[in-house]
Sequence to fold (501 residues):
Amino acid sequence: MSTLAAVATLRATETGRAERLTTVRHDHLDDRPFVLVPLTLAGEACAPLAALAGTDPDHPVLLTVRQPRNRAERFAFVQRLATLMLPYIEECRTAETETYTVGRGPDKEERLRSLRAPQILVPNGEGIAYLRLLGRLTRLRAVEGPYAVDPSVPLLGKWLTWVADRAEFPGSGLLQAVTRLLAAHWATGQSAAEDSHLASLLAWIDPPDGRTGAEAAREAEDPLLYPPAGPATDVVFDRTLDELMARYDEAGDDRGREAAGRQIDRELRGQMLPTWELVWRGVQLLRGLPAGGHVSERWAYDRRLFTEYAAYLDDDGRPQARRDHAVGAARRLARMEEAMARYDAQRAFDDPLVMAEYELTGEAFTGVVVARDEDRFQPGARSPKWRPSITVCSELPVRLRPGTEIKCPARPGQKAEIVEVTPDGDGHTVLVQLNGGFNNKRKPPAPPGTLAEVSETVTYTSVDPKAMPSVLPAEEDTPWTHGGPPEPYEPTVEDAEEIWE
Fold:
C-alpha cells in the first residue's frame, strides 16, 4: 500500500466513508460491456453450476447446470455460454475500422483495427481465475471422436484464454473485475481482502442515506441479503442445493425432474441476482468519474490486439499451448514489466493525486515559476542552440539531481533537463532547461503556451510514459545459447485428453 493510500484508508476509517484515491477514472468502460456472474459447484475444480450473463442490466440471461457432476451437462453449459458470448465478440469483430500507423521512416506501415473490442466484466478477481481455468479446460477439446464437443466450445475457450492472459497486463480493459476497478479508485476503512467482497466495498463507497460506510458494510456481509459474488457459493446454500439436486436425481419421471430443475433454477437465480445488480451499480459509479487522458490510448491498443488475434484465429486457429516455451515466457515477462511501468507513468500524468506519490518518493517535484529566460542559448557543434530555461521554486526538498531528464504533465511533448538545484530555505530552487516542444521553432519568441509563465505552478517528473521499450530478438532469431528458435506448437492428444472426469 502506498503512503497516500494508507492515509486515505485511515481517513476513511475515521469518517466512515470511502475516500477517493484518484481524480479521474484510469480504466476504460465500454458503453455495452458483457457482464458475467459465475457460480461453481463446491468441491469441484471449475465445475460450472450457473451464470447470469449478458449486456442488458435489466434482462440477464440465466444459465444453469442442474447436475454439475455430469460431463455432458458441463459442456452443454459452455456451449450455451458460447451462444451468448461469441455473437458479442463477433459484433465487435465486424464493427467499423480505423487506420493507424506502426514503425517510423521507411518501415512505416498503415494497418486497420476495429473501432470496438469486447469488454468482459466479472464481480471479482476470482471470476477472472475462473474464466482462465474454463478456457484451459475447453480450448483444447476435440470436435471429432468419442468425446467430441460442439465447435463453439473450443472457440470460446481460445477467446477466454486470450482475454484472461491480457487481464494480467496493467491497463488492459478486455477482462476486468469490478472489485479491482473500484478499489483502484476508492480507499475504504477495511482490509484489501475485505475489499474483494463486492457488496461491502460498494457499501463503503455509496452507503444508503443516513448510514456510514462501516455500518452499511456490516449489513452487506449478511449472506442472506447479499450472497457471495461467486464463483464460490455460500455454505448454507450448498446444503439447500444438495437437497434440490438429490430431489432432481430421484425424480421418477420427466415431469418431476423438470419441476425439480425449475426449482434449482429459481434458487440459483436468487443467489446471483443481487451480485448482478451490484456489478451494474459499480459500473455506474465508475462511469461518474471522468476518463483519464491516456485511457483512450490504452483502449486503442487493446482494440489493435483484438483485431490481430481475430485475424490469427481466421488464418491459423491453433489454440494457445498449455505452457509457454522459454522464449515466449521471457518475452511475455518483458512486455508485462513494460506495461506496468507505462501504466504507472500514464496514471501519474493524468492524475495529480497519483503524481503526488512520485513527489513523496523523490521522482517528481512541484513548484512556482519565479523566472524564465527565453533568450538563452547553449554552445553547439556548428552554431549556438536555443535552450530557454525556467526557474522553479519548490517549498519541499527536490531529490532529483542535475542532468536528470524530466517532463511536465501539462506539456508532455516538451523535453527538459535539470541544470541546477539550489537549497532555498526548507525547499529548493531548480533551474530547468527546455530542450524542445516549441513546435519546431529554433529561436525566440516561443509559441504561446509552450513556455511556462512566471507565477505558474508546474510539476516535473523523471517518469516518462513514452519511454522506449526494451527490444528483444524475434523468436526465429533466438540464439543457440537460449535453446534456439522454439518449435511451432501443435496440439496433441495428450493436451486434449479428458480433464473433467
Observations:
- The radius of gyration is 27 Å.
- DSSP finds 13 helices and 17 strands in the chain.
